[in-house]
Amino acid sequence: MADNNSCNAKYSGIGGQAVMEGVMMRNKEHYAVAVRKPDGEMAVIKDEYKGIIPSETVKNIPIIRGIVGFVDSLILGMRALNYSADFYAEEEKKDKKTESGEEKTDTPKVMTAEEKKEAGGTGAATVIIMILAIFLAMGLFMVIPYYASLVFSKWVTNSHLLALIEGLIRLLIFVIYIKSISQMEDIKRVFRYHGAEHKCINCIESGHELTLDNVRGASREHRRCGTSFLLYVMVVSILFFAVIDTPNRILRVGLRILLIPLIAGVAYEFIRLAGRSNNPLVQALSAPGMMMQQLTTAEPDDEMIKVGIASVEAVFDWKEYLKENF
Known about the structure:
Mean pLDDT is 87; it is low at 95-103. This protein has 13 helices and five strands. It is α+β, with helices and mostly antiparallel strands and 326 residues long. α2 (64-92) crosses α4 (126-149), α5 (159-181) runs antiparallel to α8 (226-243) and α6 (185-205) packs across α12. It has helices at 56-59, 64-92, 113-119, 126-149, 159-181, 185-205, 212-216, 226-243, 249-258, 260-276, 280-296, 302-315, 318-325, and strands at residues 14-19, 22-27, 30-36, 42-48, 109-112. The longest helix is centred in the N-terminal third of the chain and has 29 residues, at 64-92. A five-stranded mixed beta sheet has the order 1-2-3-4-5. It has one domain (14-314).
């Protein structure tokens, strides 16, 4: 079966991410989180997120739309993770329905955000966790590589070459970080759901019906993946820091933090182009990001694929999409 990397792939506009024992899919302002609960049943919550700046004008401004999209992804990603964690925590406190004699079904009940709050709500710690995660990421991927590169300043006096060394250290830390967390059992399962997410999107964007058999045969790599985005954030940062320089070390660190949104905006433009273009050059430039996805995705089982399909179907009319595009 063809995958999203083929010349016949059509941009669908949907995207998503893996969450704890589930998949989040987003289509414009609508998103759904599908979760496989401890009792084996599936739950789906559907909600809307219009973004921090819902203006269509802003969404059409290059770079700016990437900065806004980057912030929106952080907010929505944490919200989706929180929903999935809540589902799982709630169900672990209950006796399994199969043990009480109730019949298990694989047909998910789609809940609204309001119904989810009544059933247990979402944790108030989401914002705190997100802020802590941002600070940790800035320290790990921006501050530490800079100070590590200063070790080489004894032998390297060219600031541009030092910026390149800093960038290589940043890339090395990124790869080591991904490789390290991939050894954790819970993260291994998240990466398998990540694979399910990609396979579902690739399946329909290649013109195939969203069935279990078709999704199984789809690629688990996608050019619009967040892993690719992060990789190109690292690459773009090398270019920025090689050009923008100051003799003051404290100011250098400050600039590395302040320029993160702009760097993300530039990286977003490339990922956006990669997801819409089948140009051979664009595909070649996308190759490193696709290779990185070998670390952050894994083959899902059928139950994981069903979760991905349920999440897509909650927010996207794939039958109409196939009718219009294929």
